[in-house]
């Protein structure tokens, strides 16, 4: 059971895992810091506590810690209770959600493990924006994608902003690095997947046509703006597009992914 610890000392060294989250060069969720996983809000904290990531501590106001009492029943970590004002001084900004949890990172699965148990996977290249990464994981969890593989140039899904935007779904959807890039796409193909590159180019086939063909599919998604590199496009089996109205040629990468995930998951089910 969690140990409830009350403190009103903003300098309490026991709160150092939560300190200065807005200071980029000291942020504990960056690999250059301590590489911790940080969850914000009761929903995300619950998902962290139910995940494979070993919790270290919680920090929150009375009401939020009380709301989490059932989830903390079997979690032997300290839960520090303080005021919103002290929390703001420790964290570096006012936290509307009223509670944080920190955890150590867990070993990532191998890409081949994810492929072996999946029907639909997303493969990302160059998605460097943390909010886009978080939104992609949230969409993947909601729409039946079994796993996410990270190619070159992707942001870390476990950064605090990505975890928050995903509503904690980066802690639920398995992910792994896919290297070397893009030649590792051969491993995906060898595992029985058709690699489909999502692109607006006019010679691509309709996404619905791809989905109707069935089978195991790996959807390849590029960064917002430049999209997929020539090397990634060349390594794919097929180029696919989302048909759009005249005058619109692209969507935000997370929005486009949601449309594609829905079509592919519906075909599998």
TrEMBL record:
Sequence intervals crossing the membrane:
none
Task: Please give the SUPFAM superfamilies that the UniProt record associates with this protein.
Answer: alpha/beta knot, L30e-like
Q: InterPro entries annotated for this entry?
A: Alpha/beta_knot_MTases (IPR029028), Ribosomal_eL30-like_sf (IPR029064), rRNA_Methyltransferase (IPR051259), SpoU_MeTrfase (IPR001537), tRNA_m1G_MTases_N (IPR029026)
Residue spans of biased composition, Basic and acidic residues class:
1-32
Q: Superkingdom of this entry's organism? A: Bacteria
Q: Where is this region: Disordered?
A: 1-33
Query: What keywords is this UniProt entry annotated with?
Result: Methyltransferase, Transferase
Question: Domain named tRNA/rRNA methyltransferase SpoU type: which ranges?
Answer: 120-262
The protein in question is named tRNA G18 (Ribose-2'-O)-methylase SpoU
């Amino acid at each position: 059971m969690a140990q409830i610890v009350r403190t009103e000392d903003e300098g309490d060294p026991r709160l150092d895992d939560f300190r200065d989250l807005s200071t980029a060069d000291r942020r504990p969720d960056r690999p250059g810091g301590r590489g911790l996983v940080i969850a914000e809000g009761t929903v995300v904290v619950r998902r962290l506590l139910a995940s494979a990531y070993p919790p270290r501590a919680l920090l929150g106001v009375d009401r939020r810690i009380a709301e989490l009492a059932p989830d903390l029943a079997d979690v032997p970590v300290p839960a520090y209770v303080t005021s919103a004002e002290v929390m703001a001084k420790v964290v570096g900004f006012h936290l509307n959600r009223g509670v944080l949890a920190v955890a150590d990172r867990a070993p990532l699965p191998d890409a081949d493990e994810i492929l072996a148990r999946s029907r639909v996977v997303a493969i990302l290249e160059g998605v460097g924006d943390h909010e886009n990464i978080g939104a992609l994981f949230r969409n993947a969890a909601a729409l039946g994608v079994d796993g996410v593989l990270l190619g070159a140039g992707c942001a870390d899904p476990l950064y605090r902003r990505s975890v928050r935007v995903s509503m904690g779904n980066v802690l639920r959807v398995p992910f792994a690095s896919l290297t070397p890039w893009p030649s590792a796409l051969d491993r995906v193909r060898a595992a029985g997947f058709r690699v489909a590159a999502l692109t607006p180019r006019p010679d691509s086939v309709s996404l619905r046509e791809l989905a109707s063909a069935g089978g195991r599919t790996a959807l390849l998604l590029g960064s917002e703006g430049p999209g997929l590199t020539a090397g990634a496009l060349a390594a794919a089996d097929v180029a696919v597009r989302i048909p759009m109205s005249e005058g619109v040629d692209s969507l935000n990468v997370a929005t486009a992914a949601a449309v594609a995930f829905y079509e592919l998951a519906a075909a599998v089910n």
